[in-house]
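Reopening this one. Same input as before:
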Amino acid sequence: MHLTLSAAAHRLSAASEPQGGIADWAAGLVETFGGPGAGAAIALENVFPPLPSEVILPLTGFAASQGVLSIASALFWTTLGSVVGAVVLYGVGAVFGRERMHAWWAKLPLVKASDLVRTEAWFARHGTKAVLLGRMVPVFRSLISVPAGVERMPLPVFVALTAAGSLVWNTVLVMAGYLLGDQWDVVGSYVGVASKVVLALAVVALAGYVTMRVRSRRRGKP
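Same output, byte for byte:
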């Protein structure tokens, strides 16, 4: 059975909300504007992470399999969209700045100024790897742009690393949608599980950090 792009999106819409509604929206952009529409969808996904790339990218790959656009166009525009969205978040970090970050951090409970200093030192040593590999990790692929802006990573380096990491991520998901055809939405199930695992690990790490900090403060009281 072969489905049109809109029909495939509507099928997901009937099976799973709100992702189905996002699929309808993305399908409309790709059908109307082709590659630039896919790029705009991914740029918004980077700025607003709840928009799932695991829906938008495989759908774009399916569109390529139906002749709506070429694979080359799909990869070029989605990668460009990734870079544009990441640069917007980089700008947020750069405008917010190190001094404001330290002022905001100092008001938070259970944290120390030295914690932020150590984080900055870690990013200074591993920032290039964090930006490159972070583009291939669900959820963090968007968030990693903010500390890069705060630390003022050289913009050409940031753009190059973001483009390289995004190209890998986009290629995997776009090609999966292209090869799976009518079953492109299967990709989202697997990536969705990975996203939940990443979030769960982050929550566990945060809970452990808060617990250790509370115990440390209690031990420090007379």
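So the earlier flakiness isn't reproducible anymore. For the record, DSSP finds ten helices and no strands in the chain.
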